[in-house]
Amino acid sequence: MRKVVFWFRRDLRFNDNTGLLAALAEEEAVLPVFIFDERIINELDADDPRISFIYKTLKGLNIELKKHGSGLLVLKGDPLEVWKQLLEKHKISKVFSNKDYEPYARERDRKVEQLLQKSSIGFYQFKDQVIFEEGEVVKDNKEPYHVFTPYKNKWLRQFIPKFERRTINFKRFLKQQQSFPSLESLGFSFSEKEVKDFNLSVAVDYGRDRDFPAKNGGTFLGPHLRFGTISIRETVASLWSISEVLVSELIWREFFMQILYHYPKVVHQNFKPKYDGVKWINDPVDFENWCKGQTGFPMVDAGMRELNTTGYMHNRVRMITAGFLCKHLLIDWRWGEAYFASKLLDYELSSNNGNWQWAAGTGCDAAPYFRIFNPSEQLKKFDKDLVYVRKWIPEFDSPEYPEPMIDHKYARERALKTYKEGIK
């Protein structure tokens, strides 16, 4: 019996799943598949909380499918090799998936498509994780925007704040229960850190509270958008009349996605080549103190400890910690970007890269190199009562807490001199 395959990736939900709905509209029954990509997961710790979250989400999808006599086929390996095995075991007519815009994913999908074409199998991909993809919000001459504000303005002009829930016909799934693997059989163990449920109720006060880490006014949408457990279309439509600021944050996400698509070099290079000559100091001891939250700058240290303990960090504090690493310590933004990538539960390559290059001054629409935030002044503005600081630095009021590792005035002057000398 020939069948259609739907390949789950960054879209781990049934609701408003564009590619899945298209697959279910076909005549053949749909076999749902998820592949743990060894090229990605082999770089992670055995108890990486993101893997735990993916696994729990997949298990939930499988439980729902079992109610309808079906099941989710969960596999592990190099995707190309896995697809070769799938073609040997199943008579597949078509493969459906949703688009992924990251460089590695695009190359992976290109190879899979070539493999499928050899067997005359169509590979159909759909826009799902964004409102507008890389070619939809561009300048009049079709070139991509490098500056956020005009991109945002055009995005807003094109967006229609309307959402219609599209229901899933579970009868269209292949009537075949699958053996669901244990997490241990996949080479992983459950993490003590958990991805929090998203909370859109904070949207009403988000614009007022978002800069104050002690208020805990975040939505925790990041991981859910990253892994597609929530629909971006439904999310933006529900927030449209409630929080202009929060909608703007989601537009930033798409802005950085289209930058990464058009300029994949940014993964390892400065967006602006004129900063290639900046001579980073890259002191490993300084970097270690930053990672551990032992710099002597309370807002920086509280943020790093929150990250290390929970996998989250408040957005305002991310900006402060990143700016401190790049400009106070003159450590290459790529070091910090990689550390955040290893820790953040909401890690997304495009946003992480874009924001780190923004902080370093090397990216598109970046903070100018001469904008150097004073961490002590930031503390006075956004945690003046030290509620956030004392939460994450219990020894703050004791001699055990270190003195500042560098003088702000000296660090600022050194950064200005280094950037000026390095700019081409």
Automatic annotation (TrEMBL):
Protein name: Deoxyribodipyrimidine photo-lyase
Keywords: Chromophore, FAD, Flavoprotein, Lyase
The protein's required cofactors: FAD; (6R)-5,10-methylene-5,6,7,8-tetrahydrofolate
Keyword Transferase: no
Family membership: Belongs to the DNA photolyase family.
Flavoprotein listed as a keyword: yes
Record's signal peptide: none
Organism (species): Lutimonas vermicola
Uppermost EC category: lyase
Pfam families xref list: DNA_photolyase, FAD_binding_7
UniProt domain Photolyase/cryptochrome alpha/beta: residue ranges: 2-131
InterPro entries for this protein: Crypto/Photolyase_FAD-like_sf, Crypto/Photolyase_N_sf, Cryptochr/Photolyase_FAD-bd, Cryptochrome/DNA_photolyase_1, DNA_photolyase_1_CS_C, DNA_photolyase_N, Rossmann-like_a/b/a_fold
An annotated Gene Ontology molecular function: deoxyribodipyrimidine photo-lyase activity
Documented EC number(s): 4.1.99.3
